[in-house]
Amino acid sequence: MNGAPWCFNWACRLGSLADTVRGRFVSALFSTRALRTTAVAVDKSTPTLSEAIEACLAGARKRFDETIDLCVRLNLDPRKPDHNLRGLVRLPAGVPRAPRADDARARGAHLVGAEELVEHIQEHGVTFERCLATPEAMPYVSRVARVLGPRGLVPSEKLGTVGVGIGALVEAAQNSVHFRTDPFGQIHLPVAKVSFGPERVRINVLAVVHHLLSLRPESVRRRYLLGATLSRTQGPGIEIGAASLAER
């Protein structure tokens, strides 16, 4: 364009400038739309507990009774000893499994004994889901601790699996589920079956959440309960609003 009139050169420059401005305007427009879309996604309120339960139960298959699981997200650092929460939580509306029934055996214990129970474990391995003991029986437990330890079955007072009244321990264990903090500060546990219905599911979920709130470590300064997710065996995870989890 060196030989072209100066007015033509300026017109070309203005045209290029206009294209640049137009391109930036279009980019800004798309960015604004993207921000609006993101804002809508972020501001969208999460379901309440009742809404989440209703959505979780919707479309459940009738071929079998699906288990409903709860994942509670807590502001925990598993690297800190006092942040590793574990134990038993009682489910007042029933546990999502059929109790084994056979003073202890009459209440649902699968195996009962001391020396004979140690021999059973040594010969057949672990054939039970939970191990309970009285303080007097702990010396027998130590003989098979290497077998029980890797499975997390060694009885302890912290887990509520050691006590004087073995019958009461068995009855409590039949109505409770075990929980433990995972490496991400979350706690996963089964809370119900689809056949329980909305109200029984709600009662058990709130029982778990309130129990976890009572175990809040003193070192947690910021918000403790971050949220939760409810899901069934063959269903999607449904987010639950943290505010509705604190209801009574």
Core attributes:
single chain; 248 residues; alpha+beta; Ribulose 1,5 Bisphosphate Carboxylase/Oxygenase; Rossmann fold; 3 domains; four-stranded antiparallel β-sheet; two-stranded antiparallel sheet; globular; Ribosomal_uL1-like; ribonucleoprotein; Large ribosomal subunit protein uL1c; Ribosomal_uL1/biogenesis
What does the secondary structure layout of this molecule look like, with pairings?
Blueprint: H1 6-43, H2 49-57, E1 67-74, E2 86-90, H3 115-124, H4 138-142, H5 145-148, H6 166-174, E3 176-180, E4 186-193, H7 198-214, E5 225-232, E6 238-240, H8 242-245
Antiparallel strand pairs: 1-4, 1-5, 2-3, 5-6
Question: How would you characterize the overall build of this protein?
Answer:
The protein has 248 residues and is α+β, with helices and mostly antiparallel strands. The chain folds into 3 domains: 1-44; 46-95 and 176-248, Ribulose 1,5 Bisphosphate Carboxylase/Oxygenase, CATH 3.30.190.20; 99-174, 3-Layer(aba) Sandwich (Rossmann fold). It contains 8 helices and 6 strands. The chain has helices spanning 6-43, 49-57, 115-124, 138-142, 145-148, 166-174, 198-214, 242-245, and strands at residues 67-74, 86-90, 176-180, 186-193, 225-232, 238-240. The strands form 2 sheets. A 4-stranded antiparallel sheet has the order 4-1-5-6. A two-stranded antiparallel sheet has the order 2-3. The chain is globular and about 55 Å long. The termini are far apart. Keywords: Ribonucleoprotein, Ribosomal protein. This is Large ribosomal subunit protein uL1c. Part of the 50S ribosomal subunit.
